[in-house]
Amino acid sequence: MMSLETSIEDREPSYSAVVAIDIGTANSGFMFSQKRFPNRVKQAALEPKEPTILLLTPERRFDSFGQKARERYEKLHEDEAHRWFYFERFKMELHATKYLSEETWIKAMNEKEMKAKDVFAHALAYFKEEAEKALKMRSRRIKWVLTVPAIWTQRARQFMRDAAYQAGLASGDEPRRIVIALEPEVASLYVRTTSPPFARTGREGLLTYARSRSSLRRSLRSESPCDTYLIVDCGGGTVDCIAHEQRSSDGYLVEKSLPSGGPWGSTRVDANFEQLLDDIFGNDMTREMKLSEPADWNKMMLSFELQKMEATLHDDQQFTVPIPESLQRVHSDFGDGETMDDKLNDYNLNHAGPGKIRLFRRRTLVFTAPIMRKLIDPVVDKIVEHLHVLLKVRELEGVRSLFVVGGFARSAILQDRLNREFSRRVQVVVPKDPIVAVLHGAVLFGHDQQVIAERLSAYTYGVSKLEKLNTDDDGAVAPRFRHNVFDTFVRVNQSVGVDDAVTRRYQTCEPGQLRVTFGVYRSKQEHVEYTTDDGVDTCGQIEIKLKSHREDGHGFVDVTMKFGRTEIEVTAKDYTADSVSSGRCKVEFLMI
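RESULT FIELD:
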């Protein structure tokens, strides 16, 4: 509950640098820039990202992250490894969990469980420490930007913020030191400052750097602007799409379509490869391999992951995936008597079509490009299908450019398919270094969140109120009320400016009441009458503690909501008999 006497500080914090952290499904990393030179975005390591792998000790303490975690885990003795916590690709748990809460648990690779927020807090604390080393400054001088898919719910966004508080990036009393950034939005900033037809070059062909916030905004304006364009962020877990239009008056960006997408990232290709192994060797066998020899299973999967991005359109291209001896031994010990060769022969006989898969020297899977395309094409089909629907939306008739970013954007098969499907309608552009588009853009966004000037509300939002009915009597009869009235603050698809605010005044129901609780509700319907209507979901709760009340025993409070940023912001004013106090309130999206 929020007391307005001790309300959250709502001022913009002072800072010396911006650090953006991207906890990706497959890979994670951070980038940064100084406040004096916001466009001079840098990375601390040779590679901007490392595998999203977290290793914790049996006592649940941090041990390592990334490739180091993978190598450490592989060196553990089998009996010891089962006691450790090895987490990989845990980000998608937030997308897949419908009722995300403080009590959400996720499974490690070895089936051990841990609270999801603790896992994310460990990962964020690791990047916090690495960023402080790179910048040689403490976290209190840094503004932190955390990237999330735009299709994530407010619950998931608040979850990330709370994990950041737990990791020590900032305290809950300074919420503006942490910025939640939507991945395709910030990728839009990246392409506008680095990609033709937007980017302008200097005499040496180098992109010009903005030296201040105002020049950063000016750098978004192009001499030959592409008015409306579509960003397709193809990451490891999700594909996120958003359309932007450049406002001619000031060069700021306006959202033209609600964020959309789905779980069609590159890790779906890995899942298809695992399904292929299930089809060949049997689900029980592959499960036994994972549980008995998790480190070697990871080695085999890593070999496949590294090659899938190299797949081309040439049918003669070959791929090899070594099968570690330990997995061969598991197959021999727990098998049904058939050899691996036998099972591969059975698979090839039962699956007609181009491309075969064979076992070379009994220890390496070998297959050609048609097999790889069978694994990649179903994922690409989902992306293409979604884009066809999206580009038919009336508001996107003016789209002339389609920018593809993210790690999956490097896939030649994805690029070729998008060009064949859409090049007659739009220009398909894969910018330089698509894998860093989100991180780079997130740093720019951290310096100036006003550049995304307008967004569309994904839902109709409101609160539940008790409404007094008008009566013609003299007051002798007790007043009548309508319960569960949906008091609308914003409607679905409504365009909302970044600083637009909606205020409602409420009176307490009971004399002497010093606590006011509002249920926050949402619906995809534009017009809603009651919070009990079909399609209305409870999504959060606001609690406000009032200082006192007026002479008649009633209190009054103004509730103001802002929907134009990446998170819903709420402030309240408490009107008492002798004073007015105000402050920012926290919407508890995880409580319901």
